């Protein structure tokens, strides 16, 4: 058991521990990006947490979004670039202008790589609600 006389520990504050883990992971990603390294292979398990992060979506919805994302990720690199996003929007019956697509990417592109990861793809749906 944890004692209240001691400094807070993981068992006292599980949310703080989880936040600390997330912040450390984000810092590692930022460090890797700053050094010009590819972070994708190191952080593949980040996808696991989309269920927790996007709690407003059911697991079924997230799986459907993932299926759609993977269907249009023609390069199989884990990202949708401008052309892949354009084709997806056209096939889904919601064509966008070039500038509209660029604005859509810019709005959710947290790492400024001009393409959309699956997590960023989910942000589009979050912002649309």
Automatic annotation (TrEMBL):
Domain called EF-hand: residue spans: 60-95, 96-129
UniProt xrefs under InterPro entries: AIF-1_EF_pair, EF-hand-dom_pair, EF_Hand_1_Ca_BS, EF_hand_dom, EFHD1/2
CDD domains: EFh
Record Gene3D superfamilies: EF-hand
Keyword match S-adenosyl-L-methionine: no
Source domain of life: Eukaryota
Transmembrane segments: none
Gene Ontology MF term list: calcium ion binding
Pfam families listed in its UniProt record: AIF-1 (PF21008)
UniProt keyword annotations, A-Z: Calcium, Metal-binding, Repeat
Keyword S-adenosyl-L-methionine: no
Protein name, entry field: EF-hand domain-containing protein
Organism lineage: Eukaryota, Metazoa, Ecdysozoa, Arthropoda, Hexapoda
